[in-house]
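Quick question, first post here. What does this chain look like in 3D?
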Amino acid sequence: MQFRQVIFFGFPMVHTIKSTDYAVINPTTGEVVDRFDCHSEGEIQCRLEQASACFPEWSTVGFAHRADCFKKLSACLREKSEELAGTMALEMGKPLTQGRTEVEKCAFVCEYYATHAESFLHPYEVKTEMSESRVVYQALGSIFAIMPWNFPLWQVFRAAAPILMAGNTMILKHAPRVPNTANSILDLFDLAGFPDGALVNVFASNEQASRIIAERSVKGVCLTGSGAAGRAVASEAGRHLKPVLLELGGSDPYIVLEDADLELAAEKTVFSRMLNNGQTCISAKRFIVVDSVAAEFTDRVQAALEQQVMGDPLEAGVTQGPMAREDLCRNLHDQVERSIGSGARLICGGSLPKGAGFFYPATLLTGVKPGMAAFEEELFGPVGSIITVRSTEEAVALANQSSYGLGAAVFTRDIDLGRDLATSHIHAGTCVVNDFVRSDPRLPFGGINDSGFGRELGVEGIRQFVNIKTVAVGCK
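> Answer (accepted):
Ran it through. Tokens below.
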């Protein structure tokens, strides 16, 4: 069998040359249950032309018609909730209860933009020396969306709802691990009555994706993924002067101050850390705790982690499924072992289970310090790291001592202090007081630094891929 070295949007790996690059591997068993071929160059070109041909009509039918399609899409999502949750469980290991919640969130974002898109993009007048001056928002064309496997529905819908409600069309390249979810999304758009080409799906290699970015009909690119992927996509988009939106990794700090409600802090921190089997960019990863309350907080977190029920995500009562891929599981274990080797203390978990599937237990490390893998690197799995500090000032300094900047949280009973820290001192795209960080269709979402740039959701999200155009009239 022949091998070659390729770059997976920045990650070198040994890749077997084969026609089938989209394979569904059940992470609970490790078995291959489905395979799909990458589309040929001709098939991809046909889909790009379909999206481009749809744009003139879709961009001019008006907000009311587009909103009607999205309201129908919302209803279709809810109708297919069990089926979609089951597909996600089989493809990437998401527990069924979390899958149902993800479907509902997708339905909500469809309804939200159906209701608010027109007002978000309403032209407005500006007084100048001209007889008339106004700002209008105009759709760009086809937007290329490169989406990840960890929230295979939500990531797509939170991009598609603002992109399409603005009048653009969308070309979806989903992660190779979730092809059935990608096909289900396309079926939902058909069922809801969207015109052919409003959203098209391509199964493409990375080389093909690079060529798609270069296509003249593609007017923008959005990606949710790793930092390496973001750099590669941004470089390619920049080479062709295409606007790009990147939502990348994170190592979110959760600060627990001396006066915090420790029961609340532990509950929210563990929920955030364990959501989606720990495979979430915007998740509690570094637990920065003032030393006077560190022992009690640690005990509470350990107890909550040890209550996790790990098993087949299709079974009722399971709260933690497998990780999506074997390599992710082994990489996470390597990060844990390197941290322990550097002086971190293992409190619970931290071992690779025997048997089938890509499981990793809920794990807690204490004594984590700067320089350790658990502090410096993103741990994309069910591992929490406790860092103790002597003061609020030290906590903030360590929270900001990261190349990332996606989310952050602070727990304190002093709401004024918490608000001030969140507003003026902690560096992140989203900062929350006394709760866990999550994306919300009503609020802009995105990061700074190595967590990317641009904003999805909210009013800012729908303005990412439009021409903000000035129209002026001199003499009447």
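The first helix runs from residue 41 to 58.
Residues 1-20 have pLDDT under 50 and may be disordered.
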